Here is the input.
Amino acid sequence: MLKWRPIIVVGLTCAAVAVIAVWLVHARQVGYWLQLHTGTINESGPYYGFWSGFGSDLEEFGILGGIAAGIYQLVKKHNCHEPGCWRVGQYPAADGQFMLCYRHHPDYRGRKPTHELIERLHREHLERQTAIYGKLHEVHNHRTSGRAAAHDPSRDVRHDATRPSATTSPDSGGELRRDDRRL
Here is the structure.
């Protein structure tokens, strides 16, 4: 597999060396062009042209830099959570804790999701949800069926005022119920 980072570094280094070489060969023309366009020569006073021309744009560069940083932070938030990946994370993983691109999502194995894969994952999701709701319904029925059939207020701890308690309320001087200790 070809590593792109060293190739990019070598290419940028060669480009920088070429720019410096051209600048050195044509130093007088490049220097004059730079002085003229930044406004440091050919004006009524020292650096008047700079501050009324190129120098006044420094604030605009700051504003554009702030906007660019904000856009970067927004894009970074939506990037794939795989370290070093710049793709947009579109697919949730680990029950929504991570957003991954198709190349790093464990269900897709580096390929874009096909219709069959989407149907299979949807079917598995529905089966999990059905199992969860079935278990929840079973627990709910178990808890409510026992309470409704044999509801005796004298046996209920919440209604028993004669039962001694280990803690007392400091402001009322009375006893706290067993339920109140959990708060």
